[in-house]
Amino acid sequence: MKLRLILHGKAAREPRVRAAVRAVRADGHEISVRVTWEAGDAGRFAAEAVAEARRGLVDAIVAGGGDGTVNEVFALALAAGPPDTCSFGILPLGTANDFARSNGLPVDDLAACLRLVTTTPARAIDIGTLNGRVFVNLVSGGFGSRVTVETDPELKRRLGGLAYVVTGVARFRELGTSHGRIRGEGFHWEGSFVALAIGNGRQAGGGIVLCPEARLDDGALDLMILPELVGEARLDAVSQLFRQGAAAVPNLQVTARSPWFEFESDEELSVNLDGEPVKARAFRIACRPAALRVHLGPTPLLHTA
């Protein structure tokens, strides 16, 4: 099998990465590596790999990095129009690796992750778009989104999900609620909210499960809204959300499932698009069913074959 690994530049000297590549090459597979250096490299390498896949020179494109790298490589490869013969894989090298973890990849064994590409069949997964911009995993907005963006990476490394609780408490008075109108297929809601998530996948922010029922192959997106709460009740709910996920506040949240959602507000909303911060007053999020073939581990996010 011929693999093209698009590797985040920070991981180029990582001994575990080199060992994983050597191990899969020893299995008899070809792996060519492209290392990003500056903005735009991932897109250029993804387009190059797709072009070579059309000529039969690449069988699978592997994104080596964190959730942001996975999203960028998958999105730009999709934009280049990969042939049906081309599949995709993940070499998880980020701090959170939310998409990889929730999809059963053995994130602590890089050789095993790379071998999944060569030993397991690719599955067709849905892709989400926000105003045309592709995302693979999950979009979050409001207070929760601001906290995940502004939490110190070193604090996340040391405390895990608790880091968001610490940051949320420290910034609680500064980061207020947001107001918006949200429509979906057979769904309409308007009001103030603390947190908003629209997921193709289930978790973000280092393991916070925001859309626990989401699936990657159902042709739909899952919505979770945590409406505005007052005083200590808001702080308590947000703390539970960050520590235990949406399942910790079942009676407080609003949920829906739809192939698309539209959001409107009179003020800008801070949105986290698979790790990339975005601000918008209005956006449309839509699902593109079965858009990419990806090699994943055992995961509840896919219907059984």
Provide the descriptors you would attach to this structure in a database record:
305 residues; alpha+beta; Rossmann fold; Tumour Suppressor Smad4; 2 domains; nine-stranded antiparallel sheet; 15 strands
**Gyration radius, to the nearest Å?**
19 Å
CATH class term of the largest domain: Mainly Beta
Compute the separation of the termini in Å: 23 Å
Helical stretch tally: 9
Q: Give a quick account of the main beta sheet: strands, pairing sense, barrel closure.
A: 9 strands, antiparallel
Mean pLDDT across all amino acids: 88
**Any idea how many domains?**
2
Catalogue the unreliable spans.
none
State the secondary-structure class. alpha+beta
Strand content: 35-45%
Percent of residues in helices: 25-40%
Give me the CATH fold name of the largest domain. Answer: Tumour Suppressor Smad4
Q: What spatial form do the alpha-carbon principal axes imply?
A: globular
β-strand number? 15
Assigned CATH architecture of the largest domain: Sandwich
SSE succession = EHEHEHEHHEEEHHHEEEEEHEEE
Short description:
The chain is of the alpha+beta class and 305 residues long.
Written account of the structure:
By secondary structure, this protein is of the alpha+beta class. The protein folds into two domains: 119 residues, Probable inorganic polyphosphate/atp-NAD kinase, domain 1 (Rossmann fold, 3-Layer(aba) Sandwich); 157 residues, Tumour Suppressor Smad4. The protein is 30% helix and 36% strand. It has nine helices and 15 strands. Strands 5, 6, 7, 8, 9, 12, 13, 14 and 15 form a nine-stranded antiparallel β-sheet that branches. Strands 2-1-3-4 form a four-stranded parallel β-sheet, with helices on both faces. It is globular. The two termini are 23 Å apart.
